[in-house]
């Protein structure tokens, strides 16, 4: 399916934000683990996994619209 002009660019921006959030959450979870904050580490790690699910859905939408995820 062909997307309207600009839609792919918007999806790329959202995907970039999600991938950035994944990395930041993962790093923060590791820092919390190192500091001994186990419950906080678990919560932040779960947030990272939620962001991964969002990114996976966005990649699927990009592929459906014949876009290539960047």
What do these coordinates show?
The protein is an all-alpha fold and 70 residues long. The chain is built from two helices and no strands. The chain has helices spanning 7-35, 38-64. Helix 1 (7-35) packs antiparallel against helix 2 (38-64).
Question: What can be said about this structure in brief?
Answer:
The protein is mostly helical. 80% of the residues lie in helices and 0% in strands.
Oligomer: single chain
Number of strands: 0
General form = elongated
Q: What is the average of the pLDDT values?
A: 92
Assign the structural class, choosing from mainly alpha, mainly beta, alpha/beta, alpha+beta, or little secondary structure. mainly alpha
How much β-strand is present in the residues? Answer: under 5%
Reported for the largest beta sheet, the result is: none
Runs in which pLDDT lies below 50 for 5 or more consecutive residues are none
Tag the structure with descriptive keywords:
70 residues; mainly alpha; elongated
Topology:
Elements: H1 7-35, H2 38-64
Helix pairs in contact: 1-2
């Amino acid at each position: 399916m062909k997307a309207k002009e600009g839609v792919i660019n918007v999806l790329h921006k959202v995907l970039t934000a999600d991938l950035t959030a994944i990395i930041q959450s993962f790093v923060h979870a590791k820092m919390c683990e190192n500091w001994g904050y186990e419950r906080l580490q678990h919560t932040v790690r779960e947030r990272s996994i939620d962001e991964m699910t969002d990114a996976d859905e966005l990649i699927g939408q990009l592929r459906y619209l014949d876009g290539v995820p960047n």
